[in-house]
Amino acid sequence: MIPGRCAILGPMRVLAFAASTRAGSVNLTLAKLVVRVAERSGSSVDFADYADFAVPVYGGDVEAADGIPPGAYAFADRVRAADAFMIVSPEYNASMPGHLKNLIDWVSRIKPQPLWGTHALLASASPRLTGGNRGLWALRVPLEHLGTRVFPEMFSLSAADEAFTESGELISAKYDKRLTSSVTDFLDLVAAVRGHGRPSVG
Ligand SMILES: Cc1cc2nc3c(=O)[nH]c(=O)nc-3n(C[C@H](O)[C@H](O)[C@H](O)COP(=O)(O)O)c2cc1C
Question: How far is 42 from 12, CA to CA, in rounded Å?
Answer without folding.
Answer: 8
